[in-house]
Design a protein that fits this description.
The chain has 129 residues and is mainly alpha-helical. It has one domain (12-121). It contains seven helices and two strands. Strands 1-2 form a two-stranded antiparallel ribbon.
């Protein structure tokens, strides 16, 4: 019986990526962005890859997105209500607060606006976790 062929480094990385949590993937991309080779070879920086990580599953924010939103809110000294006002959703100012603290659902338009808001306020090279 011949021995099982060894996996190459790429196959090992792909296997580890598939088993990693969203937070672990984010941390890896963050590390990649700060490394000397922070590009995927096609000119796409790792920071851009981080920006493509989804922030929600349907109408519910992912834990990694909650961390990122809270980090930007803290850095800018904003409340959840102020963020909703900034996004143009004054009529439903409490929704983000409930989503962050209780895991409540958000309207899809709010999720899309939050995604753009996070992109606009992420620090290049050092995005919030």
């Amino acid at each position: 019986m011949s021995p099982k062929p060894k996996r190459n480094r790429l196959e090992k990385l792909q296997h580890s990526w598939a088993k990693a949590s969203t937070q672990q993937r984010y941390e890896f991309l963050q590390w990649l962005a700060t490394s000397h080779e922070g590009s995927d070879g096609n000119g796409l920086a790792a920071v851009d890859l981080i920006a493509r990580i989804p922030i929600a599953s349907g109408r519910y924010l992912l834990p990694s997105a909650v961390i990122r939103i809270r980090a930007v809110m803290t850095a800018r000294s904003l409340s959840a209500e102020a963020v909703m006002t900034e996004l143009g959703f004054e009529e439903d100012r409490k929704a983000l607060s409930r989503a962050l603290s209780e895991g409540a659902s958000l309207r899809l338009a709010v999720v899309a606006a939050l995604e753009n808001w996070l992109l606009a306020h992420a620090e290049p090279g050092h995005p919030a976790p």
